[in-house]
Design brief:
The protein is of the alpha/beta class and about 425 residues long. It contains 17 helices and twelve strands. The strands form four sheets. It has a four-stranded mixed beta sheet, sandwiched between helices. Strands 6-10-8 form a three-stranded antiparallel beta sheet. A three-stranded antiparallel beta sheet has the order 9-7-11.
Length: about 425
């Protein structure tokens, strides 16, 4: 086959068939397809679209460009994917809760992207935690602990890694077809039987409005189902941070407070139960998603999820006593300041993207590839939509490395909040279910 012919076909509005896409994905992985050809293919996909069948075939081809994991475990292999948001630490709650309910969860996660935080960055705020483990270690841990949260190896969907790098510099990131294939090729290469998707919508998400989020959710669900993986999606609100903290160690603290029951964040609890209910129903552990949600809540209430989380942390190099001693094990910032409100009224809107970028500027994310993250910085005790504040009362707390960085963050946070005279409606946590 010839890459030029495949690109020309897509350019002219004819979607390449499965055999052609398999060849192209293998060529991306091997280097036979050049960067120029990869960029031309991506641009043709953006301009012409690939349709549902094309998306499914591209996803399968990119999945099969590397190793596809297989598992020998006595229960369903389940995972979850989030499109990213602010204060979104659900994976740290959901993976152990699913494991406590009898599922096996090989969660391949990522690092922070743009203004959104990364699950691996949060976990690596825990001293000693290793996200990169061998496949043999992953298999042992899945058998023993039932869950692991790890980084993708170079053998998983190498065609996606190559195409994504090209898309990033050729203005071809914004394509539902390519986004769908990118997300799912990596997830399906993990050998999943069921997948639940958390598609975020709002100011702190990549998808700002419901129609965009629904289009992506339907593409993801239809493609994953077409590729042989039971899948459903929840479109969830990201018009404000999900947790009351944003920043790596600070979000781990909120997770531990919820797991231990010392200070339960109801938004984190409810979204974990909703997503977990979907996953358990898809995996055949629960009768339906409502039964599944009850099982997840029981795992959280009983401490079974916390116990599973502690075993996972220890298995991946973290402290063996993390569940008992987590307040002593996490790093803390040297500068902690209130962010005083300049306005009296009810919080009516929050620019979540700006809050996320503020955390990045504090050192809690990467502005360039290779930047070292400061796990202790970020925001805590964030005021939410509907909260009433007076002039001088805190909107949140800034955790910074220096006073100058704190000053800059305070000004950005004050500008990110909007106020109203009367209490606004509180947005629902779950906006839509796509099954």
């Amino acid at each position: 086959m010839d890459a030029r012919a495949i690109i020309a076909k897509l350019r002219d509005g004819v979607v390449p068939n499965a055999e052609e896409l398999n060849w192209f994905a293998a060529g991306l992985a091997s280097g036979v397809v050049t960067d120029a050809q990869a960029g031309a293919f991506a641009m043709a996909a953006v301009l012409r679209g690939m349709g549902e069948e094309g998306r499914i075939n591209l996803t399968r081809a990119m999945r099969d460009s590397g190793q596809v994991l297989k598992w020998d475990v006595p229960g369903p292999v389940i995972d979850k994917h989030s499109t990213g948001g602010i204060g979104d630490c659900i994976s740290l709650l959901l993976a152990p809760a699913l494991a406590a309910c009898g599922a096996y969860v090989p969660m391949i996660s990522g690092r922070g992207l743009g203004h959104t935080g990364g699950t691996l960055d949060k976990l690596e705020a825990i001293p000693g935690f290793r996200s990169a483990i061998t496949q043999d270690q992953l298999r042992r841990q899945l058998r023993d602990v039932h869950c692991a949260i790890v980084s993708a190896s170079g053998e998983i969907a190498p065609a996606d890694r190559r195409l994504y790098a090209v898309r990033d510099v050729t203005a071809t990131v914004e394509s539902i077809d390519l986004i769908t294939a990118s997300i799912l090729s990596k997830k399906l290469a993990a050998g999943l039987e069921a997948l639940v998707l958390d598609v975020k919508c709002g100011s702190g998400a990549f998808m700002k409005d419901l129609s965009q989020a629904e289009a992506l959710a339907r593409a993801l669900v239809g493609t994953a189902q077409g590729a042989g993986c039971m899948t459903s999606a929840l479109i969830t609100d990201m018009s404000q941070p999900l947790a009351t903290a944003a920043g790596n160690a600070l979000e781990v603290i909120e997770v531990m407070e919820t797991l231990s029951g010392t200070a339960v964040n109801t938004a984190l609890w409810d979204i974990t139960a909703a997503l977990g209910g979907e996953a358990l129903a898809l995996g055949g552990i629960a009768v339906d998603f409502e039964d599944g949600a009850r099982r997840i809540e029981q795992a959280l209430e009983s401490g079974a999820a916390a116990e599973c989380f502690g075993r996972m942390i220890a298995a991946q190099g973290g402290p063996s006593d993390f569940i008992e001693r987590w307040p002593d094990r996490l790093p803390a910032s040297t500068v902690i300041r209130d962010v005083p409100s300049l306005v009296q009224g009810f919080v009516s809107a929050i620019d979540g993207q700006e809050l996320g970028l503020t955390v990045v500027a504090l050192g809690g994310g990467r502005q360039r590839e290779g930047d070292k993250i400061n796990p202790s910085v970020g925001l805590s005790e964030l005021a939410g939509i509907g909260d009433e504040v007076g002039v001088g009362e805190p909107l949140c707390m800034v955790h910074a490395a220096t006073e100058a960085m704190a000053d800059e963050a305070i000004a950005r946070i004050q500008a990110a909040y909007q106020f109203a005279e009367h209490e606004p409606p509180i947005p629902p946590l779950v906006l839509k279910r796509i099954a």
